[in-house]
Amino acid sequence: MALVALRQLLDHAAEHAYGVPAFNINNLEQIQAILQAADETSSPVILQASAGARKYAGEPFLRRMVEAAVESYPHIPVCLHQDHGASPAVCQSSIRSGFTSVMMDGSLREDMKTPAPYEYNVEVTRRVADMAHAVGVSVEGELGCLGSLETGVAGEEDGVGAQGKLTHEQLLTDPAQAADFVGATGVDALAVAIGTSHGAYKFSREPTGDVLAMDRIAEIHARIPHTHLVMHGSSSVPQEWLEVIRAHGGEIRQTYGVPVEAIQQGIRHGVRKINIDTDIRLAMTGAMRRAMAKDPAEFDPRKFFKEAMLAARALCKERFEQFGCAGHAARIRPEPLEKLARRYAA
Ligand code: 13P
Q1: Alpha helix locations (H) across 160-275?
Q2: Tens of pLDDT, residue by residue, the chain (346 residues)
Q3: Closest protein CA for atom 3 of ligand 1
Q4: Is any ligand 1 atom within 6 A of the Cβ of residue 142?
Q5: Is ligand 1 within 6 A of the CB of residue 233?
Q6: Is the beta carbon of 32 within 6 A of some atom in ligand 1?
Q7: 174 in ligand 1 pocket by Cβ < 6 Å?
Q8: What is the pTM of this model?
């Protein structure tokens, strides 16, 4: 099966009222674990690569590992998405490399640290949408800055994160501005700021409405019901994995993630793409620490990677099921990008 455009996956998800997890990928083990889970649950999936991932694995390796995944699981619709593109040039290089979807994150300047003015965001995102849509590739934009409503701080994760203290106005996407942004840019999907942030340290307590603004999602969806919404920073930070990590020498402070029930509530209000990176990292780290502690004489890293893959696979399987994505793979036939390009042009 060829790679699928994000737009096609999310249109299908909207039509059937489910959400698609977008898992971050960096290496072979993560890609295999995610695809095994997609295969087991018969789910379409979004594999997303950040600038950090490309730096870690190298772009040709990432691309070819994804090609191998598509070849190995021909019945699973896979979208290859670029996470947090810092500039139109970065998006262009991903499109050239074969990504079927790109995120232009114009909520921050190109340094991925400085919050950008609205006009800048509109300008760069519109440019990327024009360029991507001409070849049928989908575009995600972001309005509002990701970061904690508790502290006003975004925190840096994988090279992305607003610096300094942010106001609530910056940390919460404005519904009226969202409608204006979508009209001005033509994005296929919109990432919204509602108090989530990347990484393990999202909330100092189980989140309530004052720090995780799910109501805001409902308001935005009511204003732009035909735009697919994206939740970034949506790892649930499983307490079980924190325990395993701590029990085997790791140091992770007490912290909480986004409850799965909150994501399910989001899915009822137009959330179609749910970004998850940290949960896979935690599960893999926990599983490797446990395996190493259990058998200190073992020196074949494959033994540890195997445990890590099993842990990641179980986590992904759970998310496919929890987001209602399971069972939909067979119902999606990838449309050629040229056909989508013609539709954008019409
Ligand atoms: P988490 O750190 O919560 O997994 O979020 C990942 C993400 O949003 C990538 O864009």
Answers
A1: 168-171, 175-185, 214-223, 239-247, 260-268
A2: 689 999 999 999 999 999 999 999 999 999 999 999 999 999 999 999 999 999 999 999 999 999 999 999 999 999 999 999 999 999 999 999 999 999 999 999 999 999 999 999 999 999 999 999 999 999 999 999 999 999 999 878 888 999 999 999 999 999 999 999 999 999 999 999 999 999 999 999 999 999 999 999 999 999 999 999 999 999 999 999 999 999 999 999 999 999 999 999 999 999 999 999 999 999 999 999 999 999 999 999 999 999 999 999 999 999 999 999 999 999 999 999 999 999 999 9
A3: 233
A4: no
A5: yes
A6: no
A7: no
A8: 0.98
Q: Residue with structure tokens 């998310």?
A: 319
Q: Which atom of ligand 1 is nearest to the CA of 234?
A: 3
> Which residue is it, tokens 């698609």?
20
Nearest Cα neighbor of 311 from 258, 244, 252, 248 is 244
Residues marked active site are found at 83
Residue listed under structure tokens 């409405």: 209
Closest CA to ligand 1's atom 1: 233
* Residue the block writes with tokens 């700021």: 193
